Amino acid sequence: MKQQIAANLEVAFSQYGFAEPNVDKLKTACNVSLRTLYKHYPSKESMVIAALDYRHQRYLAYLESERPEDGVQSIVHTFQKLGDWMADYAPHGCLSMNAIAAFPKQVQINQAVLQHKAEVRDLLGKYSQRPDLANTLLVLHEGISSAWPILGENAISSATSALLTLLNHSEMTTSNQEYSL
């Protein structure tokens, strides 16, 4: 029951944002009584964290599916998956970043978002087989998420072009350093 409520909260916050839905609307979206909702999640902040945690697990599983093993192909595939995710599940932008914007002083929400972003960063480094570029890859990833509501698919193509330039330049720099040794 708790997982199903978290799944419904994720959908509700993604659809309505964080300011609009009051607890009564969230209860309706979850198809439970107010008592049941509060039993599992005693505050709106705990509901937001549950939705973010649920989305985090879903997103990581989504990125992992059908992923090639090759570093360049894998990270390009990851960016393509991000585009599909944005189109299907996040047309209004990143739910995590929207949560920080809605609750800038709520420490637990901010911690949940920071943990999510750190895990995504680490996965991007792993998928690309370039952990040294993990922060840069996260910036590109977040740029896609932020630009999606304005640019749509062009955010993916622009970020992928920047990604390939980065990887090509980085590879050339590494090769030159090895040659000079």
From TrEMBL:
<dbReference type="InterPro" id="IPR009057">
    <property type="entry name" value="Homeodomain-like_sf"/>
</dbReference>
<dbReference type="Pfam" id="PF00440">
    <property type="entry name" value="TetR_N"/>
</dbReference>
<feature type="DNA-binding region" description="H-T-H motif">
    <location>
        <begin position="22"/>
        <end position="41"/>
    </location>
</feature>
<keyword id="KW-0238">DNA-binding</keyword>
<protein>
    <submittedName>
        <fullName>TetR/AcrR family transcriptional regulator</fullName>
    </submittedName>
</protein>
<dbReference type="InterPro" id="IPR001647">
    <property type="entry name" value="HTH_TetR"/>
</dbReference>
<feature type="domain" description="HTH tetR-type">
    <location>
        <begin position="1"/>
        <end position="59"/>
    </location>
</feature>
